[in-house]
Amino acid sequence: AKQLGTNKYAFYSRDLGERLRERMVRESGLHRALERDEFFLEYQPKIAVQTGMVCGMEALLRWQPTTQGSQVSPSEFIPILEETGMIVEVGNWVLETACRQHLLWQQQGMPPLTLSVNISAVQFHAGNLPETIAALIQQTGIAPDCLCLELTESIVMQDIEQTVATLHRLREQGIKLSIDDFGTGYSSLNYLQRMPLTELKIDRSFVMNLPQDTSAIAIVDSVLTLSKSLNLTVVAEGVETPQQAAFLTARQCHQLQGYLFSRPLGAAAFEAFVDFSCKT
Ligand code: C2E
Ligand code: CA
Ligand code: CA
Ligand code: CA
């Protein structure tokens, strides 16, 4: 038994060391990713239930290291960016790149779709976000009501007074504010009604279990009821099946996003998707 225990320890310890090293390598690689131009964005369409047309897009960060064959998943590199604080700089790059792309699309005649950008809790609390956004609007000329920030519930869990004040300073500029992955965190209804939000996004983990699972139905229904009383737009993420879409449409969810409609797309493919969906 003792022998087994020792082996077990050796196994875990080697495994951990390996993972740490791998992480360090990636971290140093990440350090150069911006200057090496290794980041790019994909855009996932959001569909308005009422019209069946594209009404917006979510910008999603991608990393393709030049020294590696394949892309690294955001779930792997974003936590490292957050732990090292690099997410502030990279997050600003995402905001600026996405807004410039949006402007280009406007100049090409694309309808004024809402551009959603993910904001990390670290970025929200560390950087001077309201000033950053004000400068961004000034420099890129994006219409403020075309920009939506997707925030996580964890942002709200920290200093509530400070958070509410920052949210107001953002909302006063005319941009939209969304709570991402809603239902997975612990935000209380009391806090929620104090925040100047425009949108809630139902997390994929609930959508996934529709339309069979009764507790998923109960959660989705309560988010929809809550949104109605707070006058918020509701978006369902991770919609993969026609059955899920039909269920959410019947319950008057406003917008749908997921592989059923489209995976995240490069800029050119997104343009083609919007063209296609407008002509049909
Ligand atoms: P998220 O904000 O919840 O984004 C949705 C994720 O679900 C994306 O994964 C998207 O590709 C994926 N997805 C969309 N539709 C479906 C579907 O129908 N089925 C399934 N299985 N997945 C779907 P992705 O791009 O790997 O991003 C993962 C997470 O990384 C994001 O989750 C977000 O939290 C974070 N992230 C991505 N880009 C950024 C960024 O620019 N800044 C920050 N702070 N976080 C980002
Ligand atoms: Ca998101
Ligand atoms: Ca989400
Ligand atoms: Ca999610």
TrEMBL record:
Source organism per UniProt: Trichlorobacter lovleyi (strain ATCC BAA-1151 / DSM 17278 / SZ) (Geobacter lovleyi)
- The chain positions of domain EAL read 23-278
Task: State what protein this is by name.
Answer: Response regulator receiver modulated diguanylate cyclase/phosphodiesterase
- Top-level taxon of origin: Bacteria
